[in-house]
């Protein structure tokens, strides 16, 4: 304890930032945690069935449970089972205890417990209240208990189920549910989500977030140290905490003010108990010989295959035919008009001789025709120029410039995302979409308008309108949002303090039509969290009370009324 206190003073911290004790002030909502919480919230609102959340040990599943319980609507009654190593009778009794259902405590009758539970479910239903059962560490449930859990979903009225069940567990739970005797339960799972480890950027933000809550706003871990933490922890929050805590202690012991990559590596070895043993020379030599044999054998096989058969590449052949066909540039048009692609040599025609007979007569998509046409000038720079023009600025870009760095001088930042149309609608800003062509090439186009059935794209210096299904056929799911952040983006939640929090309050005041200085404070309080949740609800965002990228973008737009929008394009 004395050593821990000393390293806290050494790094000017108010408390240990990487404690394993759950503390809501330190909760960090990564993009994956947001998606997991969205699945849970969605599942809670659905009638009947099971919702399944899985993830590796220490990935944040239990923390997500706590967040879910805090975000539940007031008309939801929930039974939370954290220790599922129970018999069927004990589980039913625990559910009744959680829901405050009276029953004879000496009973060992399943029927008595289910009757009592069913009566409470009917009462909740009559009061228009939802009832949910959440079981954590569900991989520890025996087959008999899981079957009893499934039978609880049979409690229903003539029109709907009375109980919603959420199972949360480690990946082993997936193997359990594949058993033949549990196939009926598996068939009733209506939503599944596997919580993946955090990415490198999320790991970096996670470390900064915890240090900030502990009172340290500047960097402690060097960039190379953060990369080492990400590599050695695999992005698992619990392992990150263990390694970072040990690294801070190691830096203090060596009187270092910064945590370096070498200190992180040493800390990781110490937390694992022992240093990995080196391979013997004989074993290493054997492995090298084996790899060399595999490489030589593979090379000989490929050489023989090329001599015996020379299959044509359909995409390359089609592209070659198209490049040699006579080109006709689209007719001139004004900048603001929506063009319909004129009939011309289509890449679909070039594919015909190489496609199976069953799809030989399929029409070629117009969007693909344009993207492979060199005269269309479908360059990344052209897409960025179109978006910057929507903001009312002109930035000079070369044909191959990405467009992000050049905009930083004007206050712009690029937010790299992946998702679907729903996510783009939540941002409600023009974006650069990445298109994956059949020949493996990538093209970037500007999305400047989005309706329920079509998308307005800028390709080169022309505007087009395409059905969403046509864009979906080529869109990789990756996109870049250009926006003007008020400060370097990072997740901000309860317990944070600083000028960023004061800005959030000003933006909420602007969104609510209040005076800019009303209720200003630099502390992210629980009352402010409620305001953030209300704002997220009004914008169809994930209601987690944390100001992450999506919420920050929408708050920034509240103070930027002239910002371009894809829901109401002005082009």
Which labels suit this protein?
five-stranded parallel sheet; 4 domains; seven-stranded mixed sheet; alpha/beta; 44% helix; Helicase, Ruva Protein, domain 3; Cathepsin B, Chain A; Rossmann fold; 571 residues
Instruction: Quote the beta fraction.
Output: 5-15%
Major β-sheet annotation: 7 strands, mixed
How far from one another are the termini?
A: 63 Å
Number of discrete helical segments: 23
Radius of gyration of CA atoms, rounded to a whole number: 29 Å
Largest sheet, order of strands side by side? Answer: 6-11-10-9-8-12-7
Secondary structure tally: strands: 12
- Helical/strand content category: alpha/beta
Mean pLDDT: 78
Name of the level-1 CATH class of the largest domain: Alpha Beta
CATH topology of the largest domain: Rossmann fold
**Overall 3D form:** globular
Please estimate the helix content: 40-55%
Please give a quick description of this structure.
The chain is an alpha/beta fold. The chain is built from 23 helices and twelve strands.
What is the strand and helix layout of this fold?
Elements: H1 2-10, H2 31-44, E1 50-55, H3 61-71, E2 76-81, H4 88-98, H5 110-126, E3 130-135, H6 143-152, E4 164-169, H7 172-177, H8 183-187, E5 189-195, H9 200-213, H10 223-233, H11 237-253, H12 261-271, H13 281-308, H14 314-324, E6 338-339, H15 347-351, H16 366-372, H17 380-390, H18 404-407, E7 413-418, H19 421-427, E8 431-436, E9 442-450, E10 454-459, E11 462-467, H20 468-472, E12 475-483, H21 499-512, H22 526-538, H23 549-558
Parallel strand pairs: 1-4, 1-5, 2-3, 3-4, 6-11
Antiparallel strand pairs: 7-12, 8-9, 8-12, 9-10, 10-11
Helix pairs in contact: 1-11, 2-3, 4-5, 9-10, 10-11, 10-12, 11-12, 21-23
